[in-house]
């Protein structure tokens, strides 16, 4: 096992016109499952490829296990990378596919098969070793690709959207499986996704990225409850955090914390919500409307759980409230939090 760290990392393309990684500092814990989450084009893949040694950084360093590896070729880094489009050899059996990297690495013949079988057992594909890839389901093929990466006994796993080829149902089970697999082998893993529910479900910590930078790194509950800026506040959460201008400040609150007044006790602020639309989603009521805290009305969303049965009518105004300790404040100009984050991350 080993930690991964990047220091002042930059990666530019096209003579500096594209700053895929603008500047990133990041360190995993030993055996940690760190998810990189961000919109398309924010630099996630470039970061993984630079850590793997497939790209030379423009500036900064990559450390694995505390040792600077910048400039070393990929094979010297004890890293296994699984991409979104993993290619298995279609004419080889599952066993031959898994053994392949060991042949390339000149591992002794007797040892190859033993290691391949062990990796296959770990991923519950031990019974499929004689099949060809086309005789497998998408999820099973995925596991063959993981076994092929695992067999080299990497110190670090880099996974780039490895579930994106699977359908929704299979994705959920493959996600569970990946998590259990990582807990079992305990290998430090960096996992790239643009899907926030995948990130929230899988990550011990999530690094939220945008435009070649890490905006915040923290446990799922930290980035959700205590976003460091308006980007994180609105990228995470569905529907996203409400942001209502008041003078120089944006007042933020999650839809589930905006409730009919009588449901909020203790210190609270009340707002009049002009209700424009309602939706029922998995038992919750999503109420769309406008509130006014400053100069002009702002659109907001309230999410009412089934336990709140206050009658709400479209076209009417209702008194809603938000508990004061649920409010988050951001600088309107920079988007940065202005009240202190309650967690150290
Ligand atoms: P996605 O989720 O769509 O895969 P990503 O977050 O992984 O996106 P990257 O693939 O790392 O994003 O790309 C980051 C930026 O760098 C993008 O603007 C992309 O167009 C640019 N980029 C990546 N590789 C190159 C390259 N080889 N040459 C020029 N620009 C590149």
UniProtKB/TrEMBL annotation:
PROSITE patterns in the record: ABC_TRANSPORTER_1, ABC_TRANSPORTER_2
MF-aspect GO terms: ATP binding
Domain ABC transporter: 4-236
Pfam families: ABC_tran (PF00005)
SMART domains: AAA (SM00382)
SUPFAM superfamilies in the cross-refs: MOP-like, P-loop containing nucleoside triphosphate hydrolases
Keywords recorded for this protein, A-Z: ATP-binding, Cell membrane, Membrane, Nucleotide-binding, Translocase, Transport
Top-level taxon of the source organism: Bacteria
Protein name: ABC transporter ATP-binding protein
Organism of this sequence: Pseudonocardia charpentierae
Lineage, highest ranks first: Bacteria, Bacillati, Actinomycetota, Actinomycetes, Pseudonocardiales
